[in-house]
UniProtKB/TrEMBL annotation:
Xref: SUPFAM superfamilies: Periplasmic binding protein-like II
Superkingdom to which the source organism belongs: Bacteria
Keywords, alphabetical: Plasmid, Receptor, Signal
UniProt-listed InterPro entries: BUG, Bug_dom1
Protein family membership: Belongs to the UPF0065 (bug) family.
PANTHER family registered for this protein in UniProt: BLR1237 PROTEIN (PTHR42928:SF5), TRICARBOXYLATE-BINDING PROTEIN (PTHR42928)
CDD domains linked: PBP2_Bug_TTT
Pfam families xrefs: TctC (PF03401)
Residues making up the signal peptide according to the UniProt record: 1-23
Protein name as catalogued: Extra-cytoplasmic solute receptor
């Protein structure tokens, strides 16, 4: 064989190895964690903790990419569905990811089958608050006021179909009131109107609500967990507030486009597990009122199926309209 033929043979033998080395180098560029909401809310906060901790632990670059577009996060989530399944575009969303298809007839994806389920990462209760000027100090007292003067009250939610929205609808049903729930595009504007007195009740993650409670701008009534939150130990649970027990957690997960590259799926599954089960991640989440909720790919998918069934019943019972 002449030297030209030998060179070709040598090149052909090295190409597969070079390709394998490149695949094994994932991620070789920044990984985008899409948050389908504006900066500043609970989903954004959890995403930034995850991205920062992943970057430190792996030495790779993970960045938060806010792609707000309304519609319960449908726009940003749709971007992820259409992205290349190479592991460089991920979605971080909350429980509203599962609820939105139940109340929005124009969702262009299936939350079970159109994503690769990567990991469950966090969960936390909601803080139910009212205005400091309100005389009620418990949920039971508050809803007694509402029943006595229903036209004087409006409730708020930071997102149609969010955990906070469902919690308020459940409470309305238990109290026997039909108060309007005003939908806002995010926690920021909802809490601004709460503080201003335009609306009188909201259930929102501790991350966004507690600072206003500590500053005296909002009055806490209850938390939507079965036990009190360590961050707000003086705030009773819904059951302790004189109403039937309610557990409504805001939970968070990571997804990728379906048919994710196996090497990327394996890498992400391992490093996210390492982060979510780490002391550093737990400590950072605790400040926000959340706890780690690790679920592997199969467990997250099963959890999504179960939560879909649970939320379907709540939507039907509460008469939440499909938009």
């Amino acid at each position: 064989m002449n030297r030209f033929g030998t060179a070709l043979l040598s090149l052909s033998m090295t190409l597969p190895a070079a390709g394998l080395a490149k695949a094994d180098d994932y991620p070789s560029r920044p990984v985008s964690i899409v948050v389908p909401y504006p900066p500043g809310g609970a989903v954004d906060g959890v995403a930034r903790v995850l991205a920062a901790t992943l970057s430190v632990k792996t030495g790779k670059t993970f960045v938060v990419d806010n792609r707000a577009g309304g519609a319960g996060g449908v726009v940003g989530s749709s971007d992820v569905v259409k992205a290349a399944p190479d592991g460089y575009t991920l979605l971080l969303n909350a429980s509203i990811h599962v609820v939105t298809p139940l109340i929005n007839k124009n969702v262009p994806f299936d939350v079970v089958n159109d994503f690769t389920h990567i990991s469950g990462i966090a969960a936390g209760p909601l803080l139910i608050t009212t205005n400091p000027s309100d005389k009620a100090n418990t949920l039971k007292e508050f809803f007694a006021e509402v029943k006595a003067a229903p036209d004087s009250y409006n409730f708020a939610t930071s997102g149609y179909g969010s955990a906070g929205h469902l919690a308020v609808e459940v409470l309305k049903g238990e109290a026997g009131v039909d108060t309007e729930v005003v939908t806002y595009k995010g926690a920021g504007p909802a809490l601004t109107d709460m503080i201003g007195g335009q609306v009188q009740l909201i259930a929102d993650p501790i991350l966004s609500s507690l600072p206003h409670v500590k500053a005296g701008r909002l009055k806490p009534l209850a938390v939507t967990s079965l036990t009190r939150s360590p961050l707000a130990p003086d705030v009773p649970t819904v059951a302790e507030s004189g109403m039937p027990a309610l557990e409504m957690l805001s939970w968070y997960g990571v997804w990728a486009p379906k048919n994710l590259d196996p090497k990327a799926a394996e890498y992400l599954g391992k490093v996210i597990q390492d982060v979510v089960t780490s002391t550093e991640f737990k400590d950072k989440l605790t400040v926000f009122g959340f706890e780690p909720m690790y679920k592997n790919s199969a467990d997250l998918k099963a959890f999504v199926v179960d939560e879909t069934q649970r939320y379907s019943k709540i939507v039907k019972t509460a008469g939440i309209k499909v938009e």
